[in-house]
């Protein structure tokens, strides 16, 4: 895929993030929800989307900046660092969640332990499915 096309797709995703964030905030106020999750999540999503739009604008100023960014994103060292960071994050998430499930179970908070374990199981299932799909593709 052409790198400029990839950047354009990222811009569309960033615009979608901003729009969804604004819709969540507006929906929380229109429907007078007592739960602040939607307005907080909407605000965070809108801010992240706006930051990505800004980053896209800075990258696409001129051809030289685009070329430098493409080199940064395709550099094998940077890809290896990002892969290692994702791996460490995955391991720490599972260790922390596992410890939380054990502690909550010991404290008799079985329902909370179950709610902590559900995202772990979902993430693990998604990981194995993605691993299986990538194994078939490569």
Written overview of the protein:
- The chain is mainly alpha-helical and 138 residues long.
- It contains five helices and no strands.
- It has helices spanning 3-30, 37-59, 63-74, 76-106, 110-137.
- The longest helix is centred in the middle third of the chain and has 31 residues, at 76-106.
- Helix 1 packs antiparallel against helix 2 (37-59).
Which structural category fits the helices and strands? Answer: mainly alpha
Task: Report the principal-axis shape.
Answer: flat
| Strands, count | 0
Beta content: under 5%
Give the helices and strands as they follow along the chain: HHHHH
Distance between the termini: 18 Å
- How helix-rich are the residues, as a percent range? over 70%
Radius of gyration: 20 Å
Question: Would you identify the regions where 5 or more consecutive residues have pLDDT less than 50?
Answer: none
Mean pLDDT: 91
Main pleated-sheet profile? none
| Tally of helical segments | 5
């Amino acid at each position: 895929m052409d790198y400029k096309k990839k950047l354009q797709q990222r811009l569309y995703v960033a615009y979608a993030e901003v729009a969804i964030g604004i819709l969540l905030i507006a929906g929380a106020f229109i429907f007078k929800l007592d739960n602040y999750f939607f307005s907080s999540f909407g605000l965070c999503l809108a801010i992240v989307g706006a930051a990505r739009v800004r980053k896209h604008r800075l990258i696409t100023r001129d051809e030289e900046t685009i070329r430098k960014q493409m080199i940064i994103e395709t550099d094998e060292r940077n890809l290896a660092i990002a892969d290692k960071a994702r791996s460490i994050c995955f391991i720490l998430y599972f260790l922390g969640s596992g410890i939380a499930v054990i502690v909550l179970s010991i404290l008799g908070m079985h329902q909370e332990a179950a709610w902590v374990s559900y995202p772990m199981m979902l993430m693990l299932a998604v990981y194995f499915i993605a691993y299986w799909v990538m194994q078939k593709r490569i």
